């Protein structure tokens, strides 16, 4: 098994699938997550081949991106088989990519170091300046409001509520993004999340200052 060749071919395949994706889960997101995962692994350890493949493939089964999670899983599984990835590694990658998503905070904590690293890398790309940009991109893609001053933000949600009940871009900060710093798994993930979390808080403060009160006409 030529690991470098498998990684390169997987990069090309994923890029071909996500190049024109417009919800913030595009190829550039995958690149950033993979880079962060490798950097975290250099500090924390873990099997880099597993980490890289899981980071590259994680959004190809996400129902925010694909029409059918089941079909996405089948496609990814077939890809790994065709690339000659051993069964044990296939199962580990499958376990990672099916358990790291936030989904309203309903998933159990991941346990393997590789899953923790990929999850941290994915969550880091959901916060900070990039996370803010992706939040508004996703809201626009789904037709959600930028901000609803009358909204009551949900502390807990089922998977169905998280996916199907529309929030606003600003609401997403309270329902997910501001929670992620405390949900990081690794010391390096927590260290990287701190600055990004503070940046989001500063952004929200500035946003509310600029939003102001409604002007009567």
Our Rg estimate from Cα atoms comes to 18 Å
Overall 3D shape: globular
Number of helices: 10
The proportion of residues in beta strands is under 5%
Number of strands: 0
Largest sheet: none
**Structural class by helix and strand composition:** mainly alpha
Mean of all residue-level pLDDT scores: 89
Q: Helical amount among residues, as a percent range?
A: 55-70%
End-to-end C-alpha gap: 70 Å
Low-pLDDT residue spans: none
Report the order of strands and helices: HHHHHHHHHH
Overview of this protein structure:
This protein has helices at residues 3-18, 27-44, 48-57, 69-82, 87-97, 113-124, 128-142, 159-164, 169-175, 187-211. The chain is an all-alpha fold and 217 residues long. Helix 3 packs across helix 5 (87-97). The chain is globular.
């Amino acid at each position: 098994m030529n690991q470098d060749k498998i990684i390169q071919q997987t990069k090309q395949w994923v890029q071909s699938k996500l190049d024109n994706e417009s919800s913030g889960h595009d190829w550039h997101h995958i690149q950033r997550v993979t880079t962060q995962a490798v950097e975290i692994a250099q500090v924390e350890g873990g099997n880099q081949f597993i980490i890289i493949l899981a980071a590259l493939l994680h959004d190809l089964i996400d129902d925010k991106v694909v029409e059918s999670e089941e079909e996405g899983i089948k496609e990814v599984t077939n890809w790994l088989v065709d690339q000659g990835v051993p069964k044990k590694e296939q199962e580990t990658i499958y376990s990672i990519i099916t358990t790291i998503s936030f989904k309203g905070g309903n998933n159990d904590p991941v346990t393997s170091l590789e899953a923790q690293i990929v999850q941290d890398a994915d969550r880091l790309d959901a916060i900070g300046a990039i996370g803010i940009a992706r939040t508004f991109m996703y809201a626009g893609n789904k037709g959600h409001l930028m901000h609803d001053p009358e909204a009551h933000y949900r502390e807990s949600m089922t998977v169905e509520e998280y996916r199907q009940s529309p929030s606003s871009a600003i609401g997403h900060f309270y329902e997910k993004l501001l929670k992620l710093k405390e949900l990081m798994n690794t010391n390096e993930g927590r260290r990287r999340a701190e600055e990004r979390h503070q940046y989001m808080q500063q952004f929200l403060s500035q946003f509310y200052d600029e939003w102001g009160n409604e002007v009567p006409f």
